């Protein structure tokens, strides 16, 4: 009873088609597809713009594992 079979989905699809009509569903599908395509294109453009900026930075700034040497010296002086 908890899971929906293929027949349940077909009945739901039939009811949705009767309520909204096929033309309206087609328009909604096209709008949704255009939005997804626009989002993907925007992500590609953003990635392309970020790559040259990363390579322009020195390696020391790109390294994510930085160590604060002064903090280590302070902790060893307190002991």
TrEMBL record:
Compartments reported by the entry: Cell membrane
Predominant localisation class: membrane
Disordered: annotated segments: 41-79
Record keyword Isomerase present: no
Source organism, top-level taxon: Bacteria
Alphabetical keyword list: Cell inner membrane, Cell membrane, Membrane, Protein transport, Translocation, Transmembrane, Transmembrane helix, Transport
Topology with respect to the bilayer: Single-pass membrane protein
Residues passing through the membrane, by range: 6-22
Keyword Membrane listed: yes
Pfam families: TatA_B_E
Biased composition (Basic and acidic residues): 41-50, 59-79
Complex and partners: The Tat system comprises two distinct complexes: a TatABC complex, containing multiple copies of TatA, TatB and TatC subunits, and a separate TatA complex, containing only TatA subunits. Substrates initially bind to the TatABC complex, which probably triggers association of the separate TatA complex to form the active translocon.
Family that this chain belongs to: Belongs to the TatA/E family.
Role this protein plays: Part of the twin-arginine translocation (Tat) system that transports large folded proteins containing a characteristic twin-arginine motif in their signal peptide across membranes. TatA could form the protein-conducting channel of the Tat system.
PANTHER family given in the database record: SEC-INDEPENDENT PROTEIN TRANSLOCASE PROTEIN TATA
Protein name: Sec-independent protein translocase protein TatA
Species assigned in the record: Cupriavidus malaysiensis
Gene: tatA
């Amino acid at each position: 009873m908890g899971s929906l079979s293929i027949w349940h989905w077909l009945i739901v699809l039939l009811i949705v088609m009767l309520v909204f009509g096929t033309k309206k569903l087609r328009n909604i599908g096209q709008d949704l597809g255009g939005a997804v395509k626009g989002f993907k294109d925007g992500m590609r453009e953003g990635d392309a713009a970020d790559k040259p900026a990363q390579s322009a930075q020195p390696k020391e700034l790109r390294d994510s594992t930085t160590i604060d040497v002064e903090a280590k010296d302070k902790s060893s002086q307190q002991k």
